[in-house]
Each structure stands twice: as C-alpha cells, then as structure tokens.
Amino acid sequence: MMRLFKKADGLPAWVDLGLIPALNLLAALIISSLVIALIGEDPIEAMGILVNGAIGYPEAIGYTLYYTTNFIFTGLAVAIAFHAGLFNIGAEGQAYFAGLGVALACLAMGGMPFFIVLPVALLAAVVFGGAWAFLPGYLQAKRGSHVVVTTIMFNFIAGALIQWVLVDLIRNPGQQAPESRTFDEGTWLPTMQKAASWFGIEMVRSPLNTSFILALIVAGLFYLFVWRTRWGYELRTVGLNQHAASYAGIRVDRTIIIAMVLSGALAGFVAINDVMGVQHRLLVNFTGGVGFVGIAVALMGRNHPVGIFLAALLFGALYQGGTDLSFEKPNITREMVVVIQGLIILFCGALENLFRRPIERLFSGKGS
Amino acid sequence: MTAPAIELVGINKRFGPVQANRDINLTVGKGTIHGIIGENGAGKSTLMSILYGFYQADSGSIRVNGQEVKIKTSEDAIALGIGMVHQHFMLVDTFTVLENVILGVEGGPRLSPVLTPARDALLKLSRDYGLAVDPDAIVQDLPVGAQQRVEILKALYRGAEVLILDEPTGVLTPQEADDLFRILRALKAEGKTIIIITHKLREIMEVTDAVTVMRAGTMVGEVKTAETSKEELAELMVGRKINMTVPKADRTPGAVVLKVEGLTYIDSRNCAVLEDATFEVRAGEIVGVAGVSGNGQSELLEVLAGLRAPTRGRIWLNGVELTGGGGAEAAHRRTLGMAHVPEDRSTAGLVKPFSAQESAILGYHDDPEIQNGVLYSPAKITARCERFMAEFDVRPPNPNLRSALFSGGNQQKIVLAREIDRDPALLLIGQPTRGVDIGAIEFIHRRLVELRDAGKALLLVSVELEEILALSDRILVMAAGRITGQVPRIEATERKLGLMMAGETAA
Fold this sequence. Notes:
heterodimer; A: mainly alpha; ABC transporter involved in vitamin B12 uptake, BtuC; 15 helices; 74% helix; globular; B: alpha/beta; Rossmann fold; 3 domains; 6-stranded mixed β-sheet; 22 strands
C-alpha cells in the first residue's frame, strides 16, 4: 500500500501528474480499441460515440458532471483513509447507509423551510456515513481487525439492513417495489438548472444538481485539512510511519478511528447528490458501485483533490459516454464499458509503473 | 612469489545517479588480514557485494589466485573459496549449530548420512582455529559472539579460503571482539585470507596487515597498518583533519533533573527486559549508558520518553512524578521539558517520505507558533526548518527535500536541532552517531557538550564505547536489563566497562 503514497523524486510535476497518467490512459484506450475490434465493431467509431455521449451535447455534460460529483465524494473518501494508511473498501456501504439517514431526514421534515432541511440532511449524511465507518475503524484501532475485511462485511450488512428497512418499515404504501415514498418537494436539493436560472442562465434539464458545488467545496476543504492542519499532519504521519507517530506523541488508535469516520462522512455526501438531489426517495442499491469506483479514482488521482477531480471527471465521462455507446451499438454492452473502465484502472493503478520506470530512467540519465 | 588471493581491477558500479564504486583497484595478499575502512556510504559494502556475487560490476575484472573469474552469484563465490560473514547473521534461530552449518550443502534428500561426517568436520574446524561451539546447541540460545563463530564455521565448512567480514564487531563486547581477533589471527596463521569491512579504527589498528581507505566510492589510500596511525586513517576517510577527542571542561553537576527508582519493564513475552533501574541525572552532566545492543537500553529510553508504561518503578522529572506511557504521554512529557532523540532516527525520529520541514515539526506539530489560527503557516514552518539547517549546518539546506534523501548525519542534525529547540531540561539521546559520518560526529559531539555546559541534563545511550568514554561524566553499564555498574568517567576504562557489559556486577 505504501506505493500509493510514493512521490516521484526528481521528476518534474508535469511528467509525474500529466505525461505518465496520459500515457497510461492512452495504453488503456489502445487495448480497449483492440477488444472492440475483436467483437467486430469499428473502434474509431465507438470511441467517437463514447466521447460524444460524454461531452458532445449539453445534456450529456450534465449527466457526466452528475456522475463526477459522486466520484469526487467517494474518491475523497477513499483518499483520506489512504492518507492514514487505511484501505477503505466500504465507501459503498457508507454511502448507502448515509442514504437512509438523508431519506429519514427528508421524510421527517416535509413542509419545513429548506434552510433548515439542508443542514439537517447534510448532518444526517455525515453522521450516518461516518457511523458506518466508525465500527470498522474502531475494530482496526483497538482490536487489529483489518479494515479491508470489516468494511467489505459492512457493505453487505448495510445492504441487508436497508433492504429490511425499506421492505418492512418505510415502504411506500400501495407499492410493491422496495423504495420509500417520494419526499416532499420542499426538501429537494435544487438542480443546477434551477440554480442557474436564479442568475438568469439557461441550462438544459439533467440530474446535475447543486451538490456538484458542494463537491468542489469539500475537495478544497480536503486539501486544507490534510496538508494545512495539525490533524491532517497527524493523519499522514500515522499513515506513513506509526512508529514515528507514537514517538511524536500522536495517538495512533484515535487517529485511525477519526480517519475512518471522516472517510465514511465524505462517502455519505453521495446520498445528498443521489437521494436528495436526483431520486428524491430511497431506492434499493441506489449507490450502484460508486464506492468501488472511488477506489480507482483515489488511486488515479494520487490521493490529491485536484487529481481526484480530474479522475472523477474521466470516470464520469466514461459512465455517461458508455451508456450512450451501449444504446447505439447493441453489440457493445454495458459490460463492454465496464471492461474499458477495468482496463483504465488496470493501467492507471496496477500497472502504474509500466511507463514510470522507463521515464524515470530517461530523466535520471539526462540529469547525470 | 605467489599470486594475490584477491585482485579487483578497475571496478565501477553505479546505481542510477549514484556512483557507488569508481575505478577501484584492490589487491589482497594470500594469508593476510586486509581492512577496508570508510564512512557509511563510502562504497565498502557495494565492493564486497560485487566480490561475493550479489551485484555485478559495470566494468572491471576480478582475479582469484591470479585467475580471472566471473562471479555472478554467491554460489560462484563459494565455489571459488570466498566466504562471507554478514553484519546481520544469516542463521536459522531454531536450528542447532550443526544444522545451520550444513544448511544448503546437505548433499542429498536424507540428512542422517551427512550429519556424522559433518559433525566430525565441524569439531575438527573448531579445534584447528579455536572456534569453540557446541554443535548441538540451539542457535538462539547462544550469545552473539558464539553466533558469529557459527557464521565463520559455516564459511569454513564450505571450504572458504578467503573470508569477508562485514562490520564484525558491531554487536560484540570488547572482550568478545578480542576473542574474534584471536580467531582471525589463528585463521591467518593457517594461511586463510581475511577481509574486514569496518568503520571502526580500533579494530583496523589491532588486527589488520594492510588497510584500504574508501571515500565517496573511490579508493583514497592503501597503507600498511604498521606504518599508519588512527589520526592519519581518520583524515583519509573524511578528507580533512579530525579532532578525535572532544574538548570538555570539568563542571560540577547541579540539581537532580531526572530521578528513576526501581524502573522495571516486563514485555509481552513476560520477560523482564528492564529490571530495577535506579539512578539520577543532574543538570550539567552527561550520563552515558553503555552496553551491548539489546540489553535493555532501548526499553529504558522508551519508558523514560513515555512511549511505554513501566511495569513497576517511578520516574521524576524536576521533582514532578511521571506515570503511564503510550498515546499522549510522550507529548505530555515534551511539554514538561523532556526531549528525545530516538535510537532509530529513520524509523522513529523522522518520517522518511515527509519533506525535511515536515519532519522538523514532528512531535511539535501542535505548536501554536507555526499556525495561523487553525491552519499551518507554511512560511513559518519553512522558516523554522531553515533556521535549524543554518544552526546545524545541514546539507543540502533545502527544507523541501524529502527527509529520506539526506545522509544519516544530516538527518540526525535535523532531529537534534528540533529536539533542543524548545530548550529542554532533559535530553534523552539514543545512538547519536549511528550511521553518521565522522565529520558530523565531531559536530554532534561538540553540540552535546555545549548543551551540558549550558546546564542541561543529558542521558546518552550508545553502543559505541569510544563515544561513551568521550562524552560522559558518569557511566552506567547495562547487561541483561540490569544496571551492572555505575562509574565516574575518570575511573572508567574500556576493560572495566567491558566486564560489566558482560554482566559482571561491579563491586
């Protein structure tokens, strides 16, 4: 896991953060093209549809940014745990559980003014998401149970728990589907279209809502917290060297728990985007894997908010473009798009050193 | 005239941008003891790793007994009669001596046919060279000196004519070191060739016939031991004159700063690694803790610094009793005026991937002086690190450079600068010059004496007797977790301390 934190020495920033990711991405796209050619489709045409589907028209951009919002939240969630040396696989379950919190808040506060609903809903997202990460964090810190194992388990527990709540407790009366009733319209998070209209800007209708702005603010706060506060310093020290952390008088166990709770809270914001901003009700499995994509986003974004934003944008575009692609080319199924995503994760994450080593050699050779 | 046992001609080796060996020519005569001396990172170990087949030289050639050879693996080296005794022993702790010796050369799937002849061969080797060990003893039950003898026997059993010893006395008491030197002389008398890699001048002077001095990857001198002196060798190693003694005026110690009574720490294996330690450290004195590494000194430091809670016993700092340990206790003790330079600076004293300026606030990271409200002020943190670097002559003086990229000496200077910045009443300092080059040792020693003269109390733990003798006003000796002696510096001799280090309680 240490490799994730390794900063390249001697490489200029544009190579480290620009050239190498671009080469990795290119390699992934070339292999994807081969796979598309293999199933008898024209890769150039397919890539064209993908790009057009992601950014080719205003509505597409809206969808892309809507997905991006989720991926920023989960990417930051995974990244903050990474900084503390923890691998949180449970952003999925934490986001899902936060969905319950947001739904309960919105269901309970129908008819109340929005300026009261919003902070309570945000608090519910943070508290429920954080709570779902607290136990794995506590078990890691005090009992040594590995968070990778416990957070995976907690994903399943969240799934089963919410299924039960939806079916037996808050199912919409007269409905067969396991979902809550739609929230009172006053509790809905304004869409970006609506927010833009306050400033006289025309936008097309899309799921993109004001939680995108929240994501950008949270990313900025993430930077300040991790690199500019003593809590972030303690967190990074624990992540890099627990021995040095205890030497410095840092409470390692407490720091681990705090990092996990923050991670869960960040994942919880997904519920603000999806539950409060788009669905306006609690649906079974509304998260649909965003927590896992967050791992790839954090990995590719090198646990830095700027990188995470860019990686989230890329995955958002792939999600949206991929949907369009599978519509237009029935041969290229949803699963095919998942293959392309997988290749990107493979090249940008697991095979990250494929181009790094030769490039490092190139630069160190030049330097001596 | 017979051909030399080993000849290295024009050896070059680089690792990325670092030229570890540059154009090295080394000739080791048959039946001689040859020392290779140099500071950490001078390229000694790389050179020997090339001879032993761990690395391949980029260019140059190796001749053994006059024959040019290629050594690609350690098997090749062993086949050519070259054996190596590593600094960290390569032994299976739970095996017997005999089992360790035949490990890798069992010669067949069944052990029983090998064991009897191997035992005979082993006993013969022990007799011939005075290497006393019991073939049936379990390795982990043996003292370190005996484990080293097992390593030497292993190499001899494999037919080694040339023995390479890497920092052989690092873990030995002076008496054990003397034993080793006796064995080496016996080996030499039997016609074996020995190469010793070391940074200690004492053993070079005592046992070698010729010395090669290395500095920054190159050979800077080759001299006959009989024709040189410690001072000349030190100067060759560092490249300038070195003051081997630390100037130190007499001083009468002041009030008691640290008082320890019956301090005991029992570890998770229920083993008393620190037992019943009672002593004081006064203002304006350096108390040295001598002992072979692993005899409770580390635990003593950690308990005092608040990293572990003692099982029994009491600690007072300036009359205030300190209890507990772990978690926030270390931070609490810092606020009470206790500073701590840890024994292992690279795993505790700093965070290697952090920049120097981030490492320079470790432990003091909640200091309001480097924060504007809730946020750190990067400018103030940089300024603090720049000040440390100027005061302690850290090179390169770049606060943004990663901590891992500084040399051992410069890392230590950063840690020391940080720890004494708050003007502590007590400084705990472990192995202040481990892995530190001679030039920086001189600097660090001078600073420690300055602190003492400024009226600070210093508790110095070191496995280097020379260092203890050079700095301390009073010396405690630890063996097997107990304090086996307390002597004022003027009454201490290396021999006297050595006996106490071996566990003989002073009268």
